[in-house]
Amino acid sequence: MSAHPVSKWRMRRRVMPGYGLTLGYTICYLSLVVLLPVSALTLRAANVDLAVYLDVLLDPRTLAAFRLTFGAAFIAATINMVFGFIVAWTLVRYPFPGHRIVDAMVDLPFALPTAVSGIALTSLYARTGLLGSVLTPFGIEVAFAPLGVVVALTFIGLPFVVRTLQPALADLDPEYEEAALSLGATRVQVFFAVILPALRPAMLTGFALALARALGEYGSVVFISGNMPMRTEIVSLLIIGKLEQFDYDGATALAMATLSLSFLLLFSINLIQWRYAAKTRSAA
């Protein structure tokens, strides 16, 4: 006969002491830090007239800023997912002299203030900069161009992918790869049949984190983009401009649209990850 539900609940309480307290603290903390500001923005946005939304969001300048912001963020996150995997693989699988120094350098974008990152990248990629002077004769403009936005977002998003992939790579047993090679599989087949399926959840998580970080970036992009309307202007700068002009309804409309699009994008990525995890569990 199965145990009474009350007995199971009491047993669970004994197994997990302090569960109620920690759960309450977690919910309270998340509510204060995340849910309360988002709720305040949502309530403020609900009071904005529909005509304001149409006027702000259908403005060609706004549409251009949204295309640049989300397009550059997606491109930067994709680049980081590819090259972040290579960096994480090298750091985990191939010990080399100076390994700890290179590993610490991955966190440099975390430590640097975004304004410092923007100034450094602008100095490096400007026409008279170290790299800009080499690229400009070939017609490649980075600073004060849309490409500069992608470079800045790639720079600040790399650590999210590397730090997400490193634990997953460390837990991946090389014996599975060796077994597949011994059975006649090629290196390419081992990568796509053994390594990639095991790392796919971590790669999607790293991609989502890098994308979310890129969508909210402001400091580094402001310097290297030049903030030229219809060309290198991002949504964050538009919101700041609205606030400086005391157009709070317009800033709220832009902020709510950005929040909604970001949420839908990240929710779609997580939905793919959840479906993949469920498919993996059912197959096992």
Descriptive notes:
- The protein has 284 residues and is mainly α.
- The protein has one domain (49-283): MetI-like (MetI-like fold, Orthogonal Bundle), CATH 1.10.3720.
- It is 79% helix and 0% strand.
- The chain contains 14 helices and no strands.
- The protein has helices at residues 5-15, 19-46, 50-57, 60-93, 99-105, 108-111, 114-125, 132-135, 146-171, 174-182, 187-215, 219-225, 235-244, 248-283.
- Helix 3 packs across helix 14 (248-283) and helix 10 (174-182) runs antiparallel to helix 11 (187-215).
- The model has no long low-confidence stretch (mean pLDDT 87).
Topology summary:
Elements: H1 5-15, H2 19-46, H3 50-57, H4 60-93, H5 99-105, H6 108-111, H7 114-125, H8 132-135, H9 146-171, H10 174-182, H11 187-215, H12 219-225, H13 235-244, H14 248-283
